[in-house]
Amino acid sequence: IASIVRDQTSVALSFAKEVSQDHASLCQSVLCCSVSQGPPMAPPPPTAATTGLRVAITGSSSGLGLEFARQYAGLGARVYALCRTPAKALELKALAESSDGAVTLHAHDQDSSESCADVADEFAKVAVDILINNAGVGGSPGARSAISDFSQDGQQFGAINYEAWAATMNTNVLGVMRTVEALTPSLLLSPHPRLVHVAGVFGSVTNQVRVGESSPDMPERAGKAGYFIYRTSKAAGNMLAKMLDVELAPQGVASLALHPGGVQTRLTEQLGAYQGSITPDVSVGNMLNLIDQMDVTQGLQYLMHDGRKLQW
Fold first, then answer.
1. CA 162 to CA 156: how far, in whole Å?
2. Whole-model pTM over 0.85
3. CA–CA separation, 238 vs 231, rounded Å?
4. How far is CA 173 from CA 165, 177, 219, 239, in A?
5. Can you tell me the distance from the alpha carbon of 110 to that of 114, in angstroms, rounded to the nearest whole number?
């Protein structure tokens, strides 16, 4: 009898495991590629207390940055919302006006050394617990335009726009460095400083594959040609994230690089087959959970918003 019970138990566990794996695969498809399986479930709330946390977010006027600001403010954090032109950030201004002082807007253009120097002066005596490097551009010549930002214009072999390439590297790589240098003194005023990079899978050398092949870490994602400018800028950004971890971990700063998934924002309208398939609130909610778990002893990790590891 005991043998029969063990056999039946083994079969049941095996079946449950297969069902679980199928369910996980389905969830990953829904979260990370352009399929329509109904709206994904909202993520669970962050596990760690966020009340009183001081969070600085770049590129906070729209998309993921705005959603980071909204969710952190809703959880009781003090939010410093950085963006190029606060006067034009109407949704962000409305959030700030309804936040009872929890959200404030700050001018910040990471393309400009002068602007970042002004940010450094403004925050010289302000402690920041979490810095989220979210600001960036998509690489096309119209990188300042939300409509064409992620188009292939100027990014295809044989038709590269080198001026746009230089401008994109200035924003996505040099701009991040300017920002981190400006705000590191503020991070070091925190007892548990955290540095977060919204990195994206396009920066993974391993996961850029030939057309028709599947990415090693994301089988649901097919290889796609082009996007030379954006991809190289994000790969350089990953190296920057690694070197910043080497530099700042000895000072107690924990680092994390995150891929938000295929998110429905105005900046993904031109992505074609990789059209956003999850909403910003789901993506950001998942990323908040991962940020809550950051620990300087773990070293820099490169993760999907749902916790899956990405290869560099």
1. 11
2. no
3. 11
4. 11, 6, 28, 9
5. 9
